[in-house]
């Protein structure tokens, strides 16, 4: 490494350590959950989606049943439809006392953010040394709003992001590892399903199949216990229906909520225009995936590494735009976003590449949406604008990237056409 690289790495390390210390404080200071402090935001996802659901499972209950969870535990949110293996995978964090489990989970989540930064460094290896490529993204992640939010509320997104990013990174070079990574991305089906479909469209059918199979096999023993505890398949299915009905009616999950932190296309469209398209969520899922699938196949066929970077970012953005997602879910696109930013910077003076810059900048908005900016947005434009800006930026990023990908493919075809005629 050069002297400049060493200085940059040391500076990033200092910023990262300070950011990590601040990001871990909520887990250390969070009060023990009671019915009186259900509105506590610190580690709320750890409380509602991990600790007490696993406790309910250990007690022989069904954590997917909203009524049971609200009656027996101090939770504010229902337990969403995570893969059943989630209840076994995160069991060690629910065995000790609440605060010990919260701190341990936050530390592991922090390490997973560092692992995500390492995957980013692997992407950037042709341009920067691995140490710098890891230290700088890690420091930016733990200092950004998206990174801090994972540790503040105790989300499982760092693990899902490492799985999704890993599957995209090694799907061709190490398909077995990619399959294992995809199984972790399946932890939340709204990640696993669209990512699996797009991997199939890109020719990684074995990765998609084996990764999905691994997630299903890992979930099967837990699922059997849940069905037995519920009294059979019928009663268990009824609780799943109740779970879906409850989720669609909450202020933080409904597509027509003006306060929900959602960045998917239907929710953003409603908050921006007030228009609720009938069947809009299904249309968005099918439409975004169809458009993205066609484009990534075309970009992959160009055989251009720069086009491949654009395709990977398009996959990441499509996953979070097509179905219900929150700003923190953009984590899955971090390695591809970093590489695409480098590609744009190198080719920014070429005609037509400015649109890629628009997509990159728009993708960064959720990371830069720090508390101080949020306060300013609320003061000037109101709370609705503050919860809409991240989603609007991500949707615009996907649209800009889709248009750019189409133009890039057309230019490549036009450039190749004279050679084909001559041949």
From TrEMBL:
Protein localization: Cell membrane
Transmembrane segments: 100-120, 207-228, 275-295, 307-324, 330-346, 353-373, 385-406
Membrane topology of the entry: Multi-pass membrane protein
Listed Pfam families: GT87
Keywords of this entry: Cell membrane, Membrane, Transferase, Transmembrane, Transmembrane helix
Family listed: Belongs to the glycosyltransferase 87 family.
Protein name stated in the entry: Na+-transporting methylmalonyl-CoA/oxaloacetate decarboxylase gamma subunit
